[in-house]
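Re: that chain you flagged

S.,

Sorry for the slow reply, it's been a week of failed gels. I finally had a moment to sit down with the sequence you sent. For the record, here it is as I used it:
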Amino acid sequence: MSVETRSFPAPAKLNLMLRVVGRRADGYHLLQTVFRFIDYGDTLTFRVRGDGAIARVNAVPGIDAADDLAVRAAWALRRAAGDALGVDIALEKRVPLGAGLGGGSSDAATTLLALNRLWGLDLPKARLLDIALELGADVPVFVFGDNAFAEGIGEQLRPIVLPPAWYVVLTPPVAVATARIFAHPELKRDSKKVTIQSFSAEPAGNDLEPLVCREYPEVGRHLDWLRQFGRAMMTGSGGGVFAGFDSEDTARAVLAKLPGSMKGFVARGLERHPLRGLAR
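Prediction finished late last night. Pasting the structure tokens below so you have them in one place:
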């Protein structure tokens, strides 16, 4: 078993559409969404250990090691493998917390994919997807590896081909409490279902957006600014917002006008996850 140190990307995602179409008896919400990976994200570095210990070796503001989804993913994979494998994990965090960009979920998926290879487990992708769902509803799509039309609680995934696009992504200085939004009595939960065939690649709305903008006015303020330049919407449960453009130059020209009180970045939409080939 290799003991080399290797780094792997954990790309963020955007939800190009998010509809809440129902609620299960156990309280989980039924969704329809389109996931798109972007070329902006975290980086995880792994060093296999021979003593069986699993540890995050650097401090990450706002994330205790015990709560880190990457660490939890390593433990979950080890339990599934039934072996006393160990690893040091270093997390270079770029994706803001509570932004709806899937940072923690992507970290978890990258950990599953990377350690499945580094630990020499060779578990099939179907097994990794099962482990991913145990870690969170957004984790499976990052293991799945393709931009996807998702249903259920987010685990029913079908690949979708999306056109090239560049995105301006703004990250308001708020950490949206996802559980609070989904538990809110005024959340719309009965949207009409759409089909993968009827979805267009243009942003198609987010059922959580009106409620989040009311509870977190900074999200609405960032949306209003971005809508000067194009069709903008919130990703996930927020508070990140984005707009798509045909070229990098156009996107960067918009970002250059960003007020000093706001933060954001430009990212290219990816055709697939960069680690898609690590598991089959």
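What I noticed first: The chain has one domain: 1-279.

Talk soon,
D.
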